[in-house]
Structure formats: structure tokens, C-alpha cells
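Example record used in the benchmark description.
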Amino acid sequence: MLEYAKKTIVVLLLLSLILLVIGCSSPKPFPPPEGYSSWEEYHDELDRRAAPQSIQVTPSAPEPAPAEPKPTPTPISTLKPKNPLYIYENGAIHVGGDGEPIELINNPNATDPTYADLVAFIVSDTTNTKDYVKGGPDGYVCADFAEAVHNNAEAEGIRAAWVSLEFEGNDEGHALNAFMTTDRGLVYIDCTGKLKKIWISFGEGSGSYQPALEFIPFTEMLYGKQIPDSVKLTERDTVAYVEKGKEYGIIGINQAKSPEYVFYLEYKQKWQDYEIMLEDYNQEVTSYNQEISGKVYIIGSLEMQRIEAWESELQKQKEMLELLEEELGYCFYELQSTAEDAHLVNDIQIYWGNN
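Model output (C-alpha cells):
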């Protein structure tokens, strides 16, 4: 019986082992969820999701403020041509005493004159006899005188230029003319007339003219004789002497034997010498008259010989002064200014118009 029981237990154990082997052989694995390569990766993802997560908030950049619109510049037409008659300088237009633009009217057939022809034209032209009027509706200044001389010369077939000057230490410039002569080169001419009246403004466009007293832009200094009427017709017709960095000077056109600046310096020195000689002569004449006043001299006496020698010397001085007067003319022009360097030429601009 025992033997049989043993055999039965052995058989049962074998059967169980066989069933266990049969039930566990070649099991088909269940695939992990889609998107995961293994179950381990899937479970790791579940653990990660189950753990508390810290949330980091990245602040968003603020929206830029709308840009302010830039002002649109007013378009300036570059197609509009400049007026060929006007004088442009540094973006501005030269105007006359009345505020109107200076207009240079050129003659395409005008030619350069000889110095003699230029002098003849200036003497015959009457621009210099006009009045210098400062300010107001009738304003007529150096720019207008230069405009008139230019246009009159061109009308006569003489090529002319309008010239602008600036001076050191002086806000007011000056205008004159220039001519390219065939025998003397460039010659400057200034026919600016005497200041006659000045506009006194009362504000808001109202005002009145007052006679000019001491406000003369070109003061006439007369040493010696009175100016004859025949000379007064051309007394403001002058040759101008212009060099940058040097004093501006003018000489009456009948006495200007040369347009070279060195001639002006020599001429000015002669006038200064003449003034000293004239003063000495007048003082000597006064002394002579005082000496002989009320006296009687015996002919042949030493005292008479002394007086005769004195009188002879005075006569020689008088003749020398008369020769200088003939050479220098009746007047010498000096620029009026309180500053020593007010008429040192700083800039020269020459405009030949639209030739």
C-alpha cells in the first residue's frame, strides 16, 4: 500500500510539473502604450506626472509703445530755377535800401573797356549825384548805386561787375563795382553818393525822414580850397582800392592815376604831408603878418632884407602847396568809423551777372 501511495504522489508531481511547464511556455508580451518604447518608460512617465511640479512663469516682454510719427518735411522744389538777375550769396538774396532784390541786367554784347574809356563813362554817368537814403520806403544805399552803375555800363556796352565787401569788426558791408580793363586789369569803382536823409521809425510801419547830419558813410575831408562847382559833378566818382586784409580806400577819379593799391598808399601819404605843410604855412603867414603889421622898413636895411627873405620863402611854400593841390585834387575821402580796423577788408565777392 505504501509503495503504491509513493508511486501515486510521484505521478501527481510529474503531472503538476508538466502542467506548469505547458502553462508558462512562450508567453506573448503585452505591448506598451503607443508612444513609449517600453513599459519602464511608460511607468517613469506616470511617476513624473504624479510628482508635484514647480511652475516657472517667464514674464512676457511688454509690447513696444507705438512710435511717434516723425514730422514730414515740407518738400522744396529743386526744379524752380534761380532768377538769373538776382545776386545770391550764402542762400540769401542781396537787396537794396527799399528791400527789393538787386537786379543785374547784362548786355551779352558788352566788352571790357580800356581804363580811359572806363573813366570817360564814369564821369559822364550821373549815378553819383543821387542821394543816399538810409531806410524807409525810399531807401537807396550803396547796393543801389552799384546796381545802377552796373546796369548803365552794360547798356553802354561795357562789361561790369557788382561787388560785395565785408569789413573786420563791422556788421555793415559795402557794395561797389568792378571792371576788367584791357590795359590796367581789374579796376574797382565806387560811385556811392552822399547821405541825404535817414528814416526814423515810429513802430508798426510808420515813420518819417530826417535830414542827415553827421551820419555820413564817406566823410569828405577838404584841406585847402573850396570845391568848385565844376568838380562837384564828379566828386563822388571814385576809384576804389580793395585788397583783403587792408584798409579800404577811394580816390577821386580825376586824380586816380593808377588802380594799384600802392598808389593809394602814396596818395594818402601825400595828403597827410600836404595837411602838415598847409598848417605850417598858415601859421608862418600869421606870424609874418603880425611881424610887419604897423611897421615901416628902410629899403636896403638888414631888417628889410630879413623881411624880404621871409616873404620869398613863404611864396615858395605857397607855390609848392598849389602844385600839390593840383596833383591831389580838392578833397581826400576817409571812411568814418570809431574803430581803427572797421574798414579792413575781410571778404570780397565779385558778381559778373549772367554773362
